[in-house]
Structure formats: structure tokens, C-alpha cells
Amino acid sequence: MVVLVVLAKVFASFFLGLLSYWFVGQLIDRNWSSASKGFDTTLEKLVIPKSKFTREVLIWCHEYIRSSDVEIPSLKLNYRPSQRCLGNYNSARNEIVIHIKNIRTVRELCEVILHEYHHSRQKATGLDENYDRMGEKYGYVNNPFEVEARRVAKMNVDQCLRDIFGDLTLHN
């Protein structure tokens, strides 16, 4: 009897893995590279709307990397090209703006949202008071707030993408 239960669990796990693999193929056009697992595909091949995908990433951020006292920021997609950046966080409005025309891949979009979401968490550690001073001292690239946001985004992007594309019940 125990052997049957173990076999049933193994089969269920295998079946769910296959189902997740199939589901990713439904969300991303079939032309994506198997080496990149579909996450480096262009945004044009994302079958679900960009607004839905970005909302899923923001919800994932809030569920998995937030601090207990952080209010979820609003998210705005700007479809005009920006010459300056991929995204930005407006602390006064608690708003993330994504410059969607500047972003090429699904992975890059996810990483930008993770990066900007982390800035919303940094409000508690002096972002508003110290960001400009640190930028003057270290420059944009070496600003400790930017370095930390890039590190957190890179550290979480793969898990976020796996969780979103493996979740058969995307939020409405």
C-alpha cells in the first residue's frame, strides 16, 4: 500500500511537471529557444497581454519579497519610448512606471519590475533622503540603492518567471 502511495505521488509530480511545461508553451509562442526556457523571448511573442503579465510579476513581488510594512505600488505601462531608462519608481506616488517600448524580452521586463519594486522597499531604508546624495557620490551605476536593486532583481528573476509560468491559475 505504501508503495502505491509513493508511486502515485511520483506520477502526480511528473504529470504536473509535464502540464507546467505545456502551459508555458501556451503562454509563449512556440518559436522560443529551448536553451533560454522561453524567458528570453521577445515581448511580441508573449501570448497573454503585457498588462496581465506585469500585474502578475508585481503580485509575485509583493507576496515573496516584500517587507511587512510596504504598500503595493501602482504600476503604469508607458508605451512611448524613453531615452533614459527601462523603468522608474516614483516614491511620492508609490508608482512604478515601465517604459515598455524600451524592453526587449520577457526576462528583461520581469527583471525591471523586480528592480523597481525593490526601490519601493528601500523607502524604509532611506531611499528618499539618501538616493540623490549617494548618486552624486558614487554615480548612478554604483549608487548603493541601484546596486542592491539590481542584485535583488537578478537573484529573483528566474524563480519569479518559473512561478508565474508554472501557475495555472493566473490572477484575474
Strand content: 5-15%
Note the main sheet: 3 strands, mixed
How many domain modules? 1
Mean pLDDT over the residues: 79
Assembly type of the shown chains?
single chain
* Number of helical segments with 4 or more residues: 5
Q: Low-confidence runs (pLDDT<50, min 5 residues)?
A: 10-36, 168-172
Report the strand count. 3
Element order: H for helix, E for strand:
HHEEEHHH
What is the molecular shape? Answer: globular
Structural class, please? mainly alpha
- End-to-end CA span: 41 Å
Rg for CA atoms:
19 Å
Q: Helix coverage percent of residues?
A: 55-70%
Question: How would you summarize what this structure contains?
Answer:
The protein has 172 residues and is mainly alpha-helical. The chain contains five helices and three strands, in the order H-H-E-E-E-H-H-H.
List key phrases describing it.
172 residues, mainly alpha, disordered C terminus, 56% helix
Q: What does the model show?
A:
The protein has 5 helices and 3 strands; from the N terminus they run ααβββααα. With 172 residues, it is mainly alpha-helical. The protein has one domain (2-166). The chain has a 3-stranded mixed beta sheet, covered by helices on one side. A hairpin with a 4-residue loop joins strand 2 and strand 3 (95-99).
